[in-house]
Amino acid sequence: MTAARTYTGTPGNLAFLARRLKKGEIVAVPTETVYGLAGDATSARACMRIFKAKGRPTDDPLIVHIASLKDLERVAVPNPGALLLARAFWPGPLTLVLPKTGAVPDLATAGLPSVAVRMPSHPLFRKLIRLAGVPLAAPSANPFGYVSPTSAAHVAKHLGRRIRYILDGGSSSIGLESTIVDMRNPRRPVLLRPGAVTKDEIERVLGVRVARRRKSPEGASVAPGQMARHYSPRTPVRLHASLTFTEARHGSSSAAWLFVGKPAALGPIPANVYWLDPLGDLRRAARRLFSVLRELDEGKFSAIHVERPSGKGIAEALLDRLVRAASR
Ligand code: AMP
Ligand code: MG
Q: pLDDT, tens digit, for every residue of 7-25?
């Protein structure tokens, strides 16, 4: 296949890409979380193309994206709790798991009777969903298991020879995949994946406790597609409960040392010491995490040593991605 072409979000380009989607082709799209690889969620053929291009196992279900609340009933069977969350957080980085309708092929949900649905806020992606006139299934636009892409250039780098169309909508403003909450039983919501919408925020809207996903004794997940090794650079990642600048300075000079905030140092900071945000702001750190991991992965380091982020809320989402990146 020839190399993918990258399109800007002009009305003509959006109309063209929407026609490709209607024909069952797949298009990499910008979202506020990470870049997605989108196809018609109601077409098993389009969904199969997504799995193939990513090398994603078909037992890992896709998230279905809609552009308006009235499209929710097309793909899922909502309940009052789910609608409360949709009204509070959509469009935005929250995915709801609900019973599915017959419009969604079994392939999209890996044979599950439930479907994961989200209304994204990125204006170009929303326009594209509207123009295509169908809900769009879209997992992250990267080869399965690698660090998620947060720019069109990231997509082109690793999927550029496996897909034809990339829509460029700038860098993802959140930079981490969506929060996923299982709302099949609205009295017992379960957090399946932490993200920018936090457990506390969800509990405040619902007025009930949100359980965390249970893990099996081996640490393997009970939810499909939640295998630990995910989001991994090729370079080994080591997560440290506490990491000091002194340790980094005296540690291996062939390794990269990554801090959440800029470490306090009296002298000059060595070139192999990095930080996600100068002030340690966790939302800004999350936005940069995947692009920094990609950059360090290309830096030929022997290892990437990372300071463990602490705290609740978005820190949990950052930690979740780092734990996965560190698991072999
Ligand atoms: P992503 O890899 O960002 O596309 O997110 C897809 C993830 O959402 C999957 O790996 C599952 O963990 C989760 N997911 C999707 N559909 C379902 C579902 N029906 N039930 C439970 N989890 C789901
Ligand atoms: Mg992914």
A: 999 999 999 999 999 999 9
